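Data follows
____________
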Amino acid sequence: MKKILFATTALVATAGVAAAEVTIGGSARFGLGYTEGAAEETRVEQRMRVNITGIAETDAGVKFEARMRLEANEDANSAISGRGPGAAGFAVSYGGFRLDVGNVSDVIDSGDVVDYYGYGIGLTSFLEQSSNGALSLTGFGAGSQDQTTIKIRYSVGDFTVAASYSDRVAVAAVAPSAGSVGNAAVTERQQYQIGAGYNFGNYSIGAAFGSNDNAGVDDDFWAASFKGSVGAASFSVLASDSDSQADVTVGASLNYDVTSATAIRFVVSDGGAAGAETAYGLGFRHGLGGGVTLAGGVGQNSADNTVADLGVSFSF
């Protein structure tokens, strides 16, 4: 991704050089999407994301970052919506250590140790190897957040460990009864995740465990993945489960480079919620140069409906 440098400052001292900068970069896509049975089966797919990142580094080499996102998407009935600037996420890193705080991803969503999503199908990755899963994950995004997430990661050689914690308090008004004043209902959700991963050659394995305490109701979950590459083929395999799922979710995805510019992808996801059908799909991606990609695909989702899309994405 190309980044445009807006401002750079440098502080020169006898101990070394400290520098700060602000960068902007993002991505966009547009095309057509189809979902059988939806109120609007065929839609104009469109999205633009802009990430604004501020970076500073101390004389001792400790790196500080802050990031927020702006985003615009299509909405129901051909409407268009925009969000942002979103809540900020912060990070500090040194060597193999990194601490993230605020609007940031948790252990599983970040991909630090588990490849949860794999190789998505189509322009929008409308099918992924985790599509039948129902894990409660937190990711970085545009707009406000109803929780603060803290994530710690440490890497040494090919081994990585990570842990995250989030705390959310929701307050909802309660209608007053006759002769009384209104009260507020307060619910709290706490979540933690911990995981580890290891890379060996062209392969990697990882696993993570987490638990939600949602207003006193526990929901434990886990995810494990194995991925790698053999020649022109790259693959990923996932297993995940939670107390709220009826069955273990198992999924796999494959990316095969036909040429240096063209790749085909296949995804399958099974298990998950009670009554969920096997989700599967086939797609392609073709690089047009300059960071522009033509992508599309077709498949069946867990509701047994046909889904498809086709369009162009690009980064800047």
Remarks:
- Helices lie at 107-110.
- The first helix runs from residue 107 to 110.
- Residues 1-17 have pLDDT under 50 and may be disordered.
- Residues 4-315 form a domain with the Porin fold (CATH 2.40.160.10).
